[in-house]
Amino acid sequence: MPSSDYDLASLPDLLPLYYRRLFPFSQYYRWLNYGGVQKNYFQNREFSFTLKDDIYVRYQSFTTQTELEKEMHKMNPYKIDIGAVYSHRPNQHNTVKSGTFQALEKELVFDIDMTDYDDVRSCCSAADICSKCWTLMTIAIRILDRALRDDFGFQHLLWVYSGRRGVHCWVCDEAARKLSVAARSAVAEYLSLVKGGEETLKKVVLTDPIHPFIKESLAVVEDYFPQYALQAQDIFGRKESVEKVLTLVPDDVRRELQQLFEKEKKPENRWELVKDQATKKQATGKKGQHFEKEIMLQYCYPRLDVNVSKGVNHLLKSPFSVHPKTGRISVPMDINRLETFDPFAVPTISLICEELDRPRTGEEDIKENEKDAAEKRKIRDYKRTSLAKYVKYFDQFLDGMASSWKGELLRKSDLQKEF
Amino acid sequence: MLFSGGRRKKHIANPQTDLYAHALQFYGQPPLENISLSEFETFAVDRLKLLKTVENLGVSYVKLSEQYTKKLENESKNLNFPHRLDIDDRKSQNAPNEYEKRRKDYISHFILRLAYCQTEDLRRWFIQQEVDLFRYRFSDLQPKQKLEFLHRNNLQYDTISIEEKKTLLDKLVNSSYGVSGITVEDQDFYKVPFQDALDLVRTRKVYLKAGYVYIPHQDIVTIVLNDFRTRLSKALALTARSLPAVHSDERLQPLLNHLSHAYVGQDYSIQKNVGKISLEQIDSLSGKSFPLCMRQLHQALRENHHLRHGGRMQYGLFLKGIGLSLEQALQFWRSEFIRGKVDADKFDKAYAYSIRHMFGKEGKRADYTPYSCMKVILSNPPSQGDHHGCPFRHSDPELLKQKLQFYKVPPSGISQIMELVKGMHYQLACQKYFELTHNIDDGSFSLNHPNQYFIESQKALGGGKDLKKEMDMSQRSQENSAARRPAAAREAAANTSQDLVEMTEDLDSFFQDG
Ligand code: SF4
Ligand SMILES: [Zn+2]
Question: How many structural domains are present in chain A?
Fold first, then answer.
């Protein structure tokens, strides 16, 4: 049995192997080249590498897939970040007149990080995660994925596990890549319901009428709330956590609930009492009495880092980059199988490198044309590891996008014919 | 007959009259006439005043509320800009001075474009105020005039059919502000790409489906504003490119620079009092002379041995403004951070850069100015894990109250402060806090900057006499700062190995990962 025990010290040995034999370069290039629809799209893209000893190298760019491969083989980055598509080649940014080197386009991205939920999870804190709090990520993905598709009309959403404690979303539609900074921040704000810093206790405030987007989001949260908040996190268990919930309701309701809770200890029933109070309040016809919804949202609604989504030139960790701390590969997530996604089952670099060393099974020894041997071997290589299913999913994602490139390319060539 | 005939002739003879035929403008083409340098200056200064008023009112009042509108109208009148836009265009054009007012409005807008196109920050500020001014003016128009305006500027939007309205009725009612089932039937709904109505999207005041928003006619101003904003920001980018030509004009250049500096008020970044404060003093100063926003950051830093990016910027620049040298700043942040999860090595790699950056020693080499209250209050609101922002704006009132009690503010004072907070007068609330904690009855200054708070506090406590003098001197020697730049640049160049790292302001993002 290969062990997935990962040790940071082994990284310098494993990375060359990973980049030489496993990293899915052709898919990676296929993605970032976007069918070659726009000239120099790949060439003007910024990559940034983190090398050993936290050395950051920004403004890397490559003219071809081969050049990218060569450079990665040489540098063996601990971490890869992807930046914007610029007006010029990023590696020549020093040579162009200052002010003219500008970030033009980038995928619309979202970063959801478990540390931002520290005030509402009791199981772990900071960078730690467990299967209990992972539910938060599932909720986040379901809510955002729906809204980005149904409300904003985007189609090509790549969800990626960050390798440690969060998920990223890359919205790859052409329209998304072309969004202005103002538009990005408007989208991010539309999607943000939990507001305020450490000096704000009540972070969700709903006003009438409740927007359809919030209703849809609430429907998702309601699916998970009993199991996640009432049971897993037991928010109506310990005294302090009960108090914390009760800071979110109006004063008179709080006093009443405190009394009722004296006799009622079961979390589910306590939650029913809260909901009863809300129904009562709402029946009075007074506006803005949505505290039961506000509680659910404050505990479960996705917490976005708006600043990451806003900037066109913001860097975000690349898919298939390794997380140096955990050794896990940052893998694309199949959102049709979201409920079964297990961050702890995501392969580490040590695991997949070990899997490479396992003896080949007979069927893989097909005769091959010498010329393509290296390329074919690489394809076969990743297929023999636990990385395979993630690359396969990535392929499907790219196929989906390719159909839209084709349309675009056709349109362009038609235009040309007209002249 | 004769009259209108005569007018038409004038139109042909003078294209400027056409340009100023309407009070509300998209400012399409630049004015063509010559203008004297002194007129240039008064126009610019007056518009700047108007825009500052727009900004201030936006903080203290709900935009377009009665008071907001009234104050803005008064200010426009005082400064001789067009006001009362609802009066019929043709009639008011003949009103005394109306032509002059419009001319002033038109020309001054273009002058400020020159002054405010130079940096991202300036552009953002200028666009925001111009957009708000436009919003106010547009909302002042009669419905008919609004339609005329759309017409004149070729703004056409698709309306949805009655059937579509019926199917979406529920959604439209629940997403549009102040729209009921009846009013949905009564008015047109426009369907436009969501990019054209960002303000409504941002605040979720519109129904959004498959990338399109459904805007009730009553909210059409949003699309118009969006259009205005887009045009203006494109125009500024163009102007910026032609700027070298303007800059070679030695009469204009100092004037333009002066204008663009004016928006932040006093520049507290000037470092003349460097080294007048020792690191040991900071704890006690934070209790006595720091405004609450900085006190809060200081406390959070001491407790957590860490501050996130937003907090580091707000607090770091403030400290720079009160006189910490770069060396002191590095020492200050390092000693605190290494008490937490960051070791010295990590600090030097990941954070030292951003501190040198604040002092203009890295990256774009811009010398960052400490944030004004307005900036703290309006931009980059704190989120999870953040301690920055303005406590009067960004704290739960309950927490703020507790804090004030803890700081021994008398109950009557607390209720006064909370009243001001409720009315969204955050700076006034802060000033009240200042008065209460410094035993001053009526402030002789009007607070708009955390560093000003500090200086005034030192003055009031008598401890800051020397400090004050230095500060005044520094104002006078603003020009010197430019002269210091080359030395700084040289030093920085020596320190960095160019190819390795060149980072932007968004450093933090770069160091956080999933
Ligand atoms: S009003 Fe200004 S100085 Fe006072 S706390 Fe707020 S930001 Fe700080
Ligand atoms: Zn957990």
Answer: 2
